[in-house]
Design goal:
This protein is of the alpha/beta class. It has 15 helices and 13 strands. The strands form four sheets. Strands 2-10-9-8-7-3-4 form a seven-stranded mixed sheet. A two-stranded parallel ribbon has the order 1-12. α12 runs parallel beside α15 and α14 crosses α15. The structure holds ligand KET.
Length: 403
Amino acid sequence: MFHHVEPFAGDPILSLNEDFQKDPRPNKINLSIGIYFDDTGRIPVLDSVRRAEAQHVAKGGPKPYLPIEGAANFRSAVQQLLFGADHEAVTSGRVATIQSVGSSGGLKVGADFINRWLPGSEVWVSDPTWDNHRSMFEGAGLKVHTYPYYDAASGGLRFAEMLSTLRTLPPQSVVLLHACCHNPTGVDLTRAQWDELIPVLRERRLLPYLDLAYQGFGDGIEADAYAARALASAGLSFFIANSFSKSMSVYGERCGALSVACPDAKQAVNVLGQLKFTVRRNYSSPPIHGGQVAATVLTDPALRAVWEAELGSMRERILAMRKKLHAVMQAKVPGRNFDYFLTQRGMFSYTGLSAEQVDVLREQHAVYLVRSGRMCLAGLNVNNVEATAVAMAQVLAQGLPRR
Ligand code: KET
């Protein structure tokens, strides 16, 4: 029956993380997966989350199926977080939101919806992007292309080329955009660039699909929602998948949402209905726990304040690591510019290391990066940042070919 089934080649991020767990070397450093580790190298359980969980456990309620679209309190809290409570898109009811199994689940449900209801549409993702984007959209039966994004020479953005490519796309093409903290490069659009991009999306009648997986890790919770709010205020129809995995450090709870901003409330009802149909025939309904914890953290004023402070200190700690790594690298490898560590935002930086250099780092120094050269700076801490810099400097000095 299954003799023709091919072996799984492994996932460039998750399989590497599994290899890291198996690595017996005590000095190993995990800068591969996009997970925030604290200064002691642990995945934190946020105080806000712990307290919200305690409230739910104390209530001890039954565990019925949630509605297909998820819990109403969670969905409404998500809309307020993304757009602001008073935003016209929210108050007019023209946003359709489902609670999803991580933002990955939301991305895929949205992709399935596009395949069913916009069958001619093809998808355009940034070059490069999170590996799984291509995989998910192709898995939904959609064709995936790239638009220019990262400029390896400057470590910045190819904004003019990006815009001119988007101007050539057929109407209803889907444009996947990272709302903040671009993965894998850490290179984001400025507000002025978003403001320039939006008229192009509108004129070409493109369908933006925002991925907001790192809200709060860029410039702050509100600031990182700029793209979502600007698109909504401009009256564009768009998708947005958002995640609490990173911002609440609840990775395994698989807690996220998919929202679709529609032209009016009537269309939002139908869109929501079809999202529900997609969910029902995939996994029927989402789990309770993570969504209820997130809803409590978002809506209880005391817990909300604790969470905002906790997220703020995670962001600050990553920034401090960026500065420290930059300083050590600058000292150890004079003549080479490491300013990208300072200018890039969020958990990731694109180091420019080749796959071969990344292999040497892993094999000889037990420092794990993704083979694209992506480094997760949220895995750095006071105890390993120096060792990371020393290892990187050695690898660079070995003079392996740089891409
Ligand atoms: N979008 C982006 C851009 C992203 O980096 C991730 C996860 C997700 C969505 C999915 O998050 P979820 O937990 O489903 O809400 N990225 C890290 C982990 C992974 O690859 O799954 C990573 O890039 O390392």
